[in-house]
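Example 3.
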Amino acid sequence: MTGFQLNERLEADSHAVCALELCDVRLMNDNRYCWLLLVPRRAGLSEWHELAAEDAAQLSAEISRASGALKTITGADKINVAAIGNMVRQMHVHVVARHEGDETWPGTVWNSGAAIPHEAEALQAVRKKISQELAPGV
Amino acid sequence: MTGFQLNERLEADSHAVCALELCDVRLMNDNRYCWLLLVPRRAGLSEWHELAAEDAAQLSAEISRASGALKTITGADKINVAAIGNMVRQMHVHVVARHEGDETWPGTVWNSGAAIPHEAEALQAVRKKISQELAPGV
């Protein structure tokens, strides 16, 4: 964990929600979607195959938690999960609640036009809801 | 495992490569990218959070293997990993070798125009290479 520092662009584009055992959970600042980032707190990590075996298992468990939480909260038709990293190499996993008929459905959310920032009050409400669903004991 | 049957569209768009413990590995029929699909042999599975805990861990291990194999074979600049499923709900994980300057770089490969099918000889060679790298004992 030593030396981990969140990438500046990821930090600018999203808001902290909570910390799981391996990953920081962040909410993308785009109110068109309920869109999380899971960022493993491991310095220098970029590719899935660079994860230690136990971290790979833990990441998958945390993706499951995030996916289930978004399904519960939003009633999404489909959850999209992706580790892309062509723009920002620090490993980050997108977990996005999708609804049939949303702005880019059935296309993907990446490079899909300008984000619409959350309004302050709504942002606090959604962060709280996700945090309670993901890490109820914290 | 009972009742698992590969979705018709996934079958039509890709070629079998090998079987890992959980997933069938398939090569997308698009020679613009070295692009694998991992399809867990579980009937009715659509979302990451529907995976049993041990399957989630195994899927992550198999993604790591596929990602590392593509890196070794292609020298890719970045491996993209994604479970989207907006078009085909049967769970399938894309693992794609990306190179700076490839046709859609730094964008994603989904909805990126018409696939260019592999030629028969090249197809056999790449399937064999991936199979040997992923499942050397088989």
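Strands of chain B lie at 14-19, 23-28, 34-40, 78-83, 93-98. Chain B has three helices and five strands.
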